[in-house]
User: Which sequence fits this backbone?
């Protein structure tokens, strides 16, 4: 009977040691594996995004050099400018994809870690859904700004350095984020325009534009000579 008691105590002690080992080593080890997996996944995805972006940038640069070599007229330069914009657009989209990838992996990692800590995430998900609906109704303008910012970047409506007319203000774009666009007008005033409020965009830096110049001449000048001079200056500018 005494021997059976000792055997029972030994079994209980072994089970306790096993539970303690599982608690102290097993759960932290699983959390470490989850964190390492998230980091490796983030590195792989960002590396893929960087590789694809590099290919697009190199292609845009190659196209720009090819078109620039055979350019003979000013109107042909629009192809060169558009190839440069494709490069900037590829870099902007890559930055957006990296941000989305990072946020997605962090959220998944947090949920997996909470599950390993035996925290019931179902109420958290339900609460997040309710909070999301409440924020959706209360922050419609904010959601509209972010969605508009995503489409502005994807559609390449304008970029940093462009001179644009957004309706209430005309100026040079200094920064474009998912929520706002920062402009500086001709007098040096900085404007912050919410992307959701941008209803129309007139980009004065994309491709080429038309300029009308009035040349005043005297009444007694030879019009044929004036015409030749203007054509000569125009040809020099085109070259």
Assistant:
């Amino acid at each position: 009977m005494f021997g059976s008691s000792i055997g029972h105590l030994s079994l209980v002690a072994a089970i306790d040691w096993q539970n303690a080992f599982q608690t102290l080593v097993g759960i932290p080890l699983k959390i470490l594996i989850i964190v390492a997996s998230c980091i490796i996944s983030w590195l792989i995805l960002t590396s893929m995004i960087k590789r694809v972006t590099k290919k697009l940038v190199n292609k845009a640069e190659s196209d720009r050099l090819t078109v620039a070599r055979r350019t003979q007229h000013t109107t042909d330069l629009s192809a060169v400018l558009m190839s440069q914009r494709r490069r900037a657009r590829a870099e902007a989209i890559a930055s957006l994809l990296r941000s989305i990838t990072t946020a997605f992996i962090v959220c998944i990692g947090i949920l997996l870690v909470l599950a390993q800590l035996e925290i019931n995430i179902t109420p958290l998900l339900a609460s997040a859904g309710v909070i999301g609906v409440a924020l959706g109704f209360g922050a419609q303008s904010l959601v509209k700004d972010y969605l508009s910012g995503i489409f502005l970047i994807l559609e390449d409506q304008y970029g940093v350095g462009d001179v644009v007319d957004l309706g209430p203000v005309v100026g040079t774009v200094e920064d474009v984020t998912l929520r706002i666009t920062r402009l500086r007008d001709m007098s040096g005033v900085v404007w912050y325009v919410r992307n959701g409020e941008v209803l129309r965009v007139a980009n004065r830096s994309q491709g080429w534009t038309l300029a009308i110049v009035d040349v005043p001449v005297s009444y007694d000048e030879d019009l044929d000579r004036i015409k030749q001079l203007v054509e000569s200056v125009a040809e020099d500018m085109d070259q």
Summary: DSSP finds five helices and five strands in the chain. The first strand starts at residue 163 and ends at 165. The radius of gyration is 32 Å. The chain has a mean pLDDT of 76.
